[in-house]
Specification:
Helices cover 6% and strands 39% of the residues. With 443 residues, it is mainly beta. The strands form 8 sheets. It has a 4-stranded antiparallel β-sheet with strand order 1-32-31-30. A 4-stranded antiparallel β-sheet has the order 2-3-4-5, with no helix packed on it. It has 3 helices and 32 strands. The chain has a domain of 124 residues. The longest helix has 15 residues.
Length: 443
């Protein structure tokens, strides 16, 4: 028996050969090597390959605070651990599409759109919880908190859905299917991602206005009018400062609750990209590539430089990272605004070629950089030695939109009381100076 099986075993070994390297759907030199990365002060965290079928292509990468998402032209969604690159689960959402609007997630679900359908997926497994026909095509990335999901529509509607309810005993339950909560018509197609803020929601309408509404009731708190289209996303600093980018070349800062204007920053060109807030710095870039670092309390620029059409992608404790118009890396010192590595230096002198990575995201959570190719390769980069992600917002801070239990004071405080008359005894008068005080020379 052994003699008969031995030749077969030998044939199998000869055919199979030694343990082979995985066949990758791209050239190996597409993955940046250690040397060019080190020359730019970076190292590779991981790379991952998204499985594609036939002519399927990767069309979008996005992330939430602790998940990374890859969406394909066949409406497949892959969820990835942003620190390891491990694919956690995959889900299918409808048929072929060439467009993806990004993804949102809360503590128990993931939300994404495909064509005119909004999908709710189990956060842990990707199992479909429900799907809702939106009636028309969405035009913004969805946003959510634990109780609501919101999406802007191409017909100018902002739609909100309720996800949970309380029973008679006060226990919380999840609806089998989300319930329409409210909708507002805000002009043309809404391309600004809505911003949940505890009991409020802020969003940019197609009517050149930023809207602030109650999260659970169809009540408009106020509308903030600008002179141009609102950018792709609003910004948030602290618990109350709402940042509104506009095509009228201004970045507006206003109090989220009271609508009190705080400051305006004239950028010199339309602002489309949402401002990036990192600690006590606000970074804003306009369509001409002018990048400014602003004081969040006053709006005064600490520095401004030209990036020749760059786009923000990440901020580390010491650097600001951008991509140039031809997708090369651009590095700026965070404190001074000095250009550390320009696109020519990163591509030609350092030899870091990222031009085959047209997909990227703006990381608003920590210092990691994520780039993708249409063929399904995703690359994660970090500064050398930054093993732990560096958060851009202190997790101990109150959430945006937080209102303390004692409420807020909408009216200005009363003027201080007139101080009481001075009862300090005056200096004693003398013959030479009957009025007291400093004596004056006699004439």
């Amino acid at each position: 028996m052994l003699r008969r099986s031995l030749p077969v075993w030998l044939v199998l070994v000869c055919v199979a050969g030694p343990p082979a390297r995985a066949q990758l759907p791209f050239a190996r030199d597409l993955i940046p090597g250690r040397t060019p990365l080190e020359r730019t002060g970076l190292e590779r965290t991981w790379f991952s390959v998204i499985p594609l079928i036939g002519s399927e292509r990767l069309v979008q990468i996005s992330r939430t605070s602790d998940l990374l998402f890859a969406q394909t032209s066949l409406a497949r969604l892959h969820t990835i651990d942003p620190e390891t690159g491990r694919i956690l689960w995959s889900a299918e959402m409808g048929g072929r599409t060439g467009f993806a609007a990004g993804t949102a997630a809360n503590t128990w679900a993931v939300f994404a759109t495909s064509a005119n359908t909004l999908y709710g997926l189990d956060r842990g497994t990707g199992r479909m919880l429900w799907k809702v026909d939106l009636g028309t095509l969405p035009s913004s990335t969805p946003a959510c908190d634990d109780s609501r999901v919101l999406v802007g529509m191409s017909d100018g509607m902002m739609k909100a859905f309720r996800l949970k309810y309380l029973d008679n005993k006060g226990s919380e339950h999840i609806y089998d299917k989300p319930i329409p909560l409210w909708s507002y018509h805000a002009g043309k197609a809404i391309t600004t991602r809505p911003l949940p803020a505890e009991k409020l929601v802020a969003f940019g309408g197609g009517d050149h206005k930023a809207w602030v509404v109650l999260a659970d009731d169809p009540t408009v708190i106020y509308r903030f009018t600008t002179g141009g289209a609102i950018g792709e996303g609003l910004g948030a600093y602290g618990a109350r400062t709402l940042l509104i980018p506009s095509a009228d070349k201004l970045l507006y800062a206003t109090d989220l609750v009271t609508a009190k204007p705080l400051w305006n920053f004239p950028s010199g060109a339309p602002i489309e990209q949402a401002p990036l807030v990192a600690g006590e710095d606000i970074y804003v870039i306009n369509t001409e590539g002018s990048l400014s670092s602003l004081d969040p309390k006053t709006g005064e620029p600490r520095w401004t430089i030209s990036t020749q059409g760059g786009q923000l992608i990440a901020v580390s404790p010491t650097k600001v990272y951008l991509r140039s118009y031809n997708l090369d890396l651009f590095v700026v010192d965070r404190v001074t605004g000095r250009i550390v590595i320009d696109p020519a230096a990163s591509h030609l002198r350092a030899g870091l070629n990222l031009r085959e990575y047209p997909l990227y995201l703006v990381n608003r959570f920590n210092d990691r950089m994520y780039l993708g190719t249409r063929s399904g390769l995703i690359l994660a980069l970090r500064e050398i030695g930054q093993v732990r992600p560096q958060l851009l917002r202190d997790p101990k801070q109150p959430p945006f939109g937080f209102i303390p239990p004692e409420g807020i004071e909408l009216n200005p405080p009363p003027p201080p009381e007139t101080p009481a008359e001075n009862t300090t005894p005056e200096p004693a008068a003398d013959a030479a100076n009957p009025a007291g005080g400093e004596a004056k020379p006699q004439s």
